[in-house]
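Before relying on records like the one below, remember that each one covers exactly one chain. Contacts with other chains, cofactors or solvent are not represented anywhere in the record.
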Amino acid sequence: MDLFPSPSEYSDAGEGPASGRHNDNAASVDDEESAQRSRPRASYALMLEKARDKAIRTVKGDYTPTDHDWAASLSLAPFAIFSMVSLFQAANQECAAGIKVDTLDIMDLNGLVRRGKLPSQYFRTNVQHCGDVGREAYIQAQHEMGAIHSMARALTDEKGSIANLVNFLEDPDDIRRNLKPEMDVIWASVSKCLGAAKAIVAKFHYWQLVITHLKKDALTTKEKVTDEKRHRTQNQRDAEVESESALRSSARKPTQHDSRLLSKSDLDLERIRADIVALENMMTILESSAHHLGVLKYHIELLENVFKEMLELSIENTMETDVKAFLRLIHNSLDPDHAESFRLSKQSKETVIAAALRLQGRFSVTVHISGAYIEISNTHLQPAIGRMEWLKKDDFEAGCKRSVEQIGKLAAQVRRDFEGLAEDSIRAFVKRLIEATEECG
């Protein structure tokens, strides 16, 4: 039973043999009947090919050269780790041990909503916490990308959920038993992909908030240390004046009191000078830390945008524009208890197939993006993340530059492959539909 519109709906009106026409040649009759059957199939194939070409143009338009340059941004991911290595080295200096942060509450970028809290009042401990948050962000990104990769493949494989759903529309038994469960599978899979993408973005965004907070604290504390240094410098000048006065007095007529006063002045000067040196070292550490935090923030913003634009917004847009329309049209025509009454109009059928083709193309790209990230993460990111605290800046820098170059090449190749990947997937999908129609014919 053909639950789609009759293939004749795709035929031109008036085609076929005239009613009552007599032909004694049996072979001619068979040829004519064969031609009648082939014309609807040809029209159906033509409809599929038109839908294919339109879907390819649409999906290609999703990935124009003016899009966010995710390849370049992703290639800079090792520099974020390099910035953390530099930050650890600055914060681990002995004179950084006593530096305290100004506030513990981590606010959103507008400074209005509390998003978290630092674990300690000491800057060094919070730098370690920043590294832990970053490590968790990279690990979670790999985990969620793995989930996205698996679910996107399950949607787009030759016998994946999208193909299954289109095929189920042809059989009443499948409509009764399998259509609704497969619709639920598609919706759940896309929803999970979106949830995984949102989780990655949220983790990198929180890391950015921690970085922003620490940078602000570093700059605020540096200002306080600078003020303290000014105060100490003035104390030094006062002590030097007092020491010189005691020295002149002792030179004229030395007394035991003058000797004690001179000795005290020397000790005060020595202590003040030591304090000033310590404050200068703290200022250097805070200034260096603020710089590394600023560089780190820049790279994390780029990575967050990569995940947001290439995954979260892409999947969310696909869910809103294609998945819902795709499933709604089927659902509105579906009565599982009376599958024989299920029938899609010609226009609805074309809309369903067009949406299915776009889903096929877009999620085939998602498969490739997620797979590329997993390869990059396994090869270049995870090994360095696990050793951030122990890596030496100079030793890591050369390897970092090599990783940036290699990631850039891989990501750029994936970026160039987008259009071809989507087109190949859509063409293969349509080819299977046409072949299935011919087999049924």
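Residues 1-23 have pLDDT under 50 and may be disordered.
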